[in-house]
Design brief:
Layout (H helix, E strand, L loop, with lengths): L5 E5 L3 H13 L3 E5 L2 H11 L3 E5 L7 H9 L6 E5 L4 H9 L4 E4 L4 H17 L8 E4 L2 E4 L4 E4 L2 E2 L4 H12 L4 E3 H9 L8 H13 L10 E4 L3 E4 L3
Helix pairs in contact: 2-3, 6-8
GO biological process, one term: positive regulation of DNA-templated transcription
Protein name: Stage 0 sporulation protein A homolog
Pfam families: Response_reg, Trans_reg_C
């Protein structure tokens, strides 16, 4: 018998909590719920969850503080679920260690897809788990050969452009903030102005023949960052 994956839902709105619990249990997840930040932290330390769904607007502790405390002792995937739609809120949550961010209201399909993505990233980051090739539609990235092709045709990228594409591909399905990308590619002392990132991304999209208005491979999370399409 396959052991069910354990999801902790930290959410004080009863109707939303019930919706999430019913949805996940119908898809064979084990669900533990908590209505406060303190209760949620206790559940995380005692239940060893596979994924945590965290609301930001909790009655006792702000969700961001809960997230920061979790990151002090655990790398469990955390998906923030919140009615806060400001870009600064999303960036703050992602920079504090959230793996993803879903804005209320959301549908069943989106919720399940984000959970699957978070679980894949968690499993991929385990020791000995490295994928040598990324594929999405016609796009293929061979990390060992540092080769990028579309429909079998090689795409010639600069060193920086390749680093950008490979970073996004290795985190496919996960939104990476502008600051995270800049820090990872150019280092912690790089200018935080996003212009250099936007210019390089424009060059990449032109070389890949991608229309930014209808992206096939790289989605822009406006004001937040970029997300590579999942394999």
């Amino acid at each position: 018998m396959t052991q069910k994956l354990n999801v902790i839902v930290i959410e004080d709105e009863k109707n939303i909590c019930n919706f999430i619990q019913t949805t996940l249990e119908n898809h064979d997840y084990k669900v533990t719920t908590a209505a406060t930040g303190k209760e949620g932290l206790s559940c995380i330390t005692s239940c060893y969850p596979d994924v945590v769904l965290l609301d930001l607007g909790l009655p006792d502790i702000d969700g961001l503080e809960v997230l920061r405390q979790v990151r002090d002792f655990s790398t469990v995937p955390v998906i923030v679920i919140s009615a806060r739609i400001q870009e600064t809120e999303k960036v703050a949550a992602l920079d504090a260690g959230a793996d993803d961010y879903i804005t209320k209201p959301f549908g069943t399909s989106e919720l399940l897809a984000r959970i699957r993505t978070a679980l894949r990233h968690s499993q991929a980051s385990a020791p000995g788990k490295t994928e040598a090739v990324y594929r999405s539609g016609d796009l293929m990235i061979d990390f060992d050969k540092r080769l990028v092709t579309i429909a079998g045709q090689e795409i010639h990228l600069t060193q920086i452009e390749y680093k950008l594409v490979s970073l996004l591909a290795q985190n496919a399905g996960k939104v990476l903030t502008y600051d995270y990308i800049i820090n990872h590619i150019w280092g912690p002392y790089a200018d935080s102005n996003n212009q250099i990132l936007r210019v390089n991304m424009a060059h990449i999209r032109r070389k890949m023949g991608e229309n930014p208005a209808e992206p096939k491979y790289i989605n822009t999370e406006i004001g937040v960052g970029y997300r590579m399409r999942e394999e």
